[in-house]
Amino acid sequence: MSDKAPLRQPASPANVTALTAEVAGLIVEALNLDLAPADIDPDTPLYGEGLGLDSIDILEIALVVSKQYGVQLRADSEENERIFGSLRQLVEYIIAHRTK
Amino acid sequence: MVAYRAGRPILVPRFLADVERVAAILGASSHVLNACADRYHFSVGFAASLLSGKVSLLPSTYTPEAVRQLSAFAPDAVCLTDEDDCPLALPLVRYPRADTATPPPSPPRSDAAGRVPRVDAAQLAAYVFTSGSTGTPVPYRKSWGRLVDCVREEGDRFGLRQRAPCTIVATVPPQHMYGFESSVLLALCNGHALCAERPFYPADIAAVLAGVPRARVLVSTPVHLRAILSSGVVLPQTDLIVSSTAPLAQQLAAETEQRNGTELLEIYGSTETGQIAVRRPTHGPEWRLWPGVRLTLEGDATLAQGGHIEQPTRMCDVLELTAQGRFLLHGRLTDLVNIAGKRSSLAYLNHHLNSIPGVEDGAFFHLEESRSSQTGVARLAACVVAPSLDAQRLLEALRERIDAVFLPRPLLLVARLPRNSTGKLPQEALRALAARARSAPARTALTIPAEHPALAGHFPGIPVLPGVLLLDEVVRMVESDGGLCGARWRIGAAKFVKPVRPGETLTLGHEPLPNGSIRFKILRAGQPVAHGVLVPLATQERPDHGRQAG
Q1: Residue A84 has what pLDDT?
Q2: Predicted model pTM
Q3: Contacts of A27 in chain B (CB under 8 A)
Q4: Any idea where the domains of chain A sit in the sequence?
């Protein structure tokens, strides 16, 4: 994405940690998961057998992420598999592409 | 024009050549599980199977268990796949790579003029499967002639036969009966083009539509239509939107039409019957049947027959006949489950749950709680008595047996199910049990008196409670709370943050975790002094509240 992110913050470790907790909270709330946000291991795969999410969940997350951060996810980007590889990677993608 | 991929057209001669190429590699098997994800590959594979007299198999799910059952049904089945690492346990036939990158082999052998081959209407084209209610998938025959009749009628109903050529973009897989009919066959049998892609995210759907010429038809589901609206993505001019798999809320239909300046039609059907009725939700709730299809009441159920329907079929919904060829839909029969277009029944899911070694009793149920879902999909929950298993192992075993959309969320491990005196399990009682097990952390006052016998002689002068005493108290209080799993525990984790003195007033908070463990926290004046996790022990000698036979 070439858009300059107007509200983009520098990705300091503290920001990453805060955003990771925030995104974990969004996921738990959107998917009604029986977990505390802090229970999501940032490196566990979100899809399939890791956190056990399926494609409908991924769509839910994508919508929440687009609302919250102005990031429209695309499946045809090669990054897509990587983005949902883990919470950490999703957060990295949001930091790089957020528009709000 | 047969198809578009990445916005580039694929013409009829190319298609016929590809069909011939694939027919040549399918081998002697008479059954083909067509697992191609690319809609063009699927269509080529289907046509190749049809022209070689092979039957395409369209299962409702691809779990290892379902594939084993499919192999038992058709032992000679092969799987046509366009994936490099197809996980299905069948002999694999790899779809040829680069089907459009190279010119067609010239000339096509079977038909030098590139004429479209003819197929006998009576030929068995496919078996589609429903999950059945006993754990074994049930096959339904689909003959070529009836499939064609059905989608020709669909073309008429959509006004597409007069409006050629259209390009059909679909968000549903070609293997699902709806996608099979409304993307693959609707295109092939009415002279329209299908789009090889299966876009997923709203932005993908918009991009794929924008990449093909008008007239554009979007074949989708309430899940995706809701996602498109919710994302704010605006679709390029789309001439018709079709929805099926689950009832579309009137409001969603109206907003979709308004936002996209288009017409939305909704299809009603089933795997067994194929599509049998259509309506435009913004024009009224009544459905209009395909000509020749008749509905008759049989007790509580409605029977559909006639027209392209292969055999009289009991429909899974409560239907009200309003006039000749018209009806209203009043929802599913109670045992049935439909999640995002995947159909199952509680009986089927319970059968599989209770077939897992270690499960003593278990039941799926509808949670029916409001949630802020963006896609409008509601999941199932399950309560399970399985003292020797944790939630993770249970979920792994379930994943082997049932489609992932039906995996329970939450999966609650409980000591017993709330069966009534006749052994029945009211859904209401299950919901109440779940609500208890999931309720906000229980908080209980906790004091260990200074005269506790275990304290005698400890830390003279500066009495500090030993951690084990606190843990003992935690276990006792958790067990007395009822409804929670297990009478024996091990300590999964425990951390003592601050020393605790006898006689201090403490608060114990505890909550069940999805794997059946209990998370606890001990607070003093709101500040944590200890926290940890209790894990239920696997035991053989548990009190008997086991499952009755059957």
Answers
A1: 82
A2: 0.72
A3: none
A4: 48-100
